[in-house]
Amino acid sequence: MQQQAIERTDLLQNDVSVPGHEVVQARVDIAPGAVSIKRSHPGEEVAYVLEGLLEYQLEGRQPVTLKTGEALFIPDGVAHLAKNVGTGKASELATYFVRKETLLVVPEK
């Protein structure tokens, strides 16, 4: 991710009732025009747009643009990226249900 253009703040990390899994929650702030790296996760993600306009590109699907208050489910292992397509800052609440003791973010080519 572009270091100055995208800022991630970890909010929560906790075990869940499924053995070997945990929930991780983070706020991600994205400057206008900024694009994240293409990545995947070792589990599912729910991205909820807190403010702004974000375009999500999931591998094998058409891009989808979400506005404040909308959410997107990202399946386990699906490569994706996010881009701020609005004129101001955009923020998302990212909630991950992932396998423990693995990299949360797996960069993709």
Automatic annotation (TrEMBL):
Which CDD domains does the UniProt record give? cupin_BLL4011-like
Q: Where is the Cupin type-2 domain?
A: 27-91
Do you know which Pfam families this protein is assigned to? Cupin_2
Highest taxon of the source? Bacteria
Which InterPro entries does this one have? Answer: Cupin_2 (IPR013096), RmlC-like_jellyroll (IPR014710), RmlC_Cupin_sf (IPR011051)
In terms of PANTHER family, this protein maps to: CUPIN DOMAIN PROTEIN (AFU_ORTHOLOGUE AFUA_3G13620)
Q: What is this protein called?
A: Cupin domain-containing protein
Which species does this protein come from? Answer: Phyllobacterium brassicacearum
